[in-house]
Write a structure and sequence with these properties.
Blueprint lengths: L1 E3 L14 E5 L8 E5 L5 E4 L7 E5 L5 E5 L5 E4 L6 E4 L10 E5 L9 E6 L4 E6 L7 E4 L4 E2 L9 E2 L5 E4 L2 E7 L2 E8 L5 E8 L12 E10 L2 E10 L8 E8 L4 E5 L5 E5 L5 E5 L9 E4 L10 E5 L5 E4 L13 E3 L5
Length: 332
C-alpha cells in the first residue's frame, strides 16, 4: 500500500520504523520513497533534512547531517525531529564515508566518528560539549596486487562497529583492530589489535567470496558473513552470524540472536533492532544491498530455520540518486 504526503515531518511515521529509504535526489520534487519493512507500506515524502545536505545514517538511529554550503553539522532523530548541534566541518565530507556513534547518545562520553572509505582518515568529536572536529590518520598496511605494475596504495578500514565506547574493525584477515579514545594533551584514538580466526565457508567451488559486516547488538560485538560460492554475487549460499567471545578471542557461531533482527545495507552499514516491538521477524538478517546495482529488492534470512525470502517493493521505485539506506529506531 502506498501513501503520498507533502509534509516533510517524518515523526508521523515513527511507528513504521525501521524504514528503507529510496532517495530520488532532484527527481520527483526531491522526494523519497520510504518503505516500512514491517508492514510493507510505502510513503512518498519530501524530507527537508535530506535537501542540500550530506546525510549519513548511523546504526543507533540518529542521522548525521552536514549542510553542503555552511558545513554546519547536527545529529537528527527522524522519529522525534530533535537535533543535536555539532561543530561545523572545516571542509566537505569525503565522497564515500560512514558515521558511527561510540555509545548511546545519553552517554556523556559519546563520540561521533566519520570513517573515510577512500583513504585512511578518521574525523571525530564529542557529541556533548565538543568544540571542534579532530582529524587523525592511521596505518593498516598497503594494498598490493601481485604482478600489477601499479604502485601499492594505502589500505583503509571499510568494516567497523562501535561497542561500549570502542570502535572495532577488521584490520586484516584473522585480526580485529580496536580504536579507543585517549584524552591526552591532544585527544586521539589509540589503535590496538588482537588475533581472531576469520570464519570461512567451504562450498567446494574453486574460489568463494565473503561479504562481512560488524555490528553491535545488546552491547556485544557481532560479525555477519554472507558467503557467495564461486564469487557469484547473484546468489547467497549461506549467512552466518558470530558473536565475539573476548575471553577466548574467537568468533562463536550463533543461531539464536533472541528478539533481534540485523539490518544490513551498503558500505558496511549494519544495525541491530528489536524485532517484536517493531514488527520484524526475530532472529533474521535483513539484507538491503544489491551488489549488481539494478534492483531494489531486499532479502530476509532466518538464522534459526535456515530459510530465506526475497521481498520486492509493492510498487515500482523511480531511479535513485544513491543506494537505498536504512533509518532505524533510535537508541536512547
Amino acid at each position: 500500500m502506498e501513501s503520498k504526503a507533502t509534509a516533510d515531518d517524518l515523526t508521523s511515521l515513527a511507528a513504521s520504523f525501521p524504514l528503507l529509504v529510496y532517495d530520488h535526489g532532484e527527481q520527483l520534487d526531491n522526494s523519497q520513497t520510504l518503505l516500512s519493512v514491517a508492514d510493507g507500506s510505502s510513503h512518498i515524502y519530501r524530507v527537508s533534512e535530506l535537501q542540500n545536505c550530506r546525510c549519513l545514517e548511523t546504526p543507533r538511529g540518529l542521522v548525521f547531517i552536514a549542510d553542503t554550503s555552511s558545513l554546519q553539522c547536527s545529529l537528527w532523530s527522524p522519529q522525534t525531529g530533535e537535533k543535536i548541534p555539532l561543530p561545523a566541518l572545516d571542509k566537505p565530507l569525503p565522497e564515500y564515508c560512514r558515521c558511527l556513534l561510540s555509545d548511546t547518545i545519553s552517554s556523556p562520553d559519546c563520540l561521533v566518528l566519520i570513517n573515510d572509505l577512500t583513504q585512511p582518515e578518521l574525523l571525530f568529536c564529542h557529541v556533548r560539549g565538543g568544540s571542534e572536529w579532530i582529524s587523525q590518520s592511521y596505518d593498516v598496511g598497503l594494498y598490493i596486487i601481485p604482478g600489477s605494475p601499479e604502485p601499492p596504495t594505502k589500505r583503509y578500514i571499510s568494516e567497523m562497529a562501535a561497542v561500549q565506547g570502542k570502535f572495532y574493525f577488521a584490520e586484516a584477515p584473522d585480526e580485529v583492530g580496536v580504536f579507543s579514545f585517549v584524552q591526552d594533551r591532544e585527544p586521539r584514538l589509540e589503535m590496538t589489535s588482537f588475533p581472531v580466526p576469520t570464519p570461512v565457508y567451504a562450498s567446494g567451488a574453486p574460489q568463494d567470496a565473503t561479504l562481512s559486516y560488524l555490528l553491535e547488538s545488546c552491547q556485544e560485538l557481532f560479525l555477519v558473513c554472507l558467503f557467495f560460492p564461486g564469487c557469484n554475487f547473484d546468489r547467497v549460499e549461506e549467512v552466518g552470524a558470530y558473536r565475539m567471545d573476548f575471553s577466548k578471542q574467537e568468533w562463536c557461531k550463533v543461531i539464536d540472536i533472541g528478539d533481534r533482527a540485523f539490518l544490513l545495507g551498503p558500505h558496511g552499514y549494519a544495525a541491530s533492532c528489536k524485532a517484536i516491538e517493531y514488527g520484524l521477524k526475530k532472529g533474521c538478517v535483513y539484507f538491503a544491498f544489491d551488489l549488481l546495482g539494478n534492483i531494489n529488492n531486499f532479502h530476509v534470512f532466518d538464522l534459526v530455520e535456515g530459510t530465506r525470502e526475497l521481498i520486492r517493493p509493492g510498487q515500482d521505485i523511480p531511479p535513485l540518486a544513491r543506494e537505498p539506506f536504512w533509518m532505524v529506531p533510535a537508541c536512547p
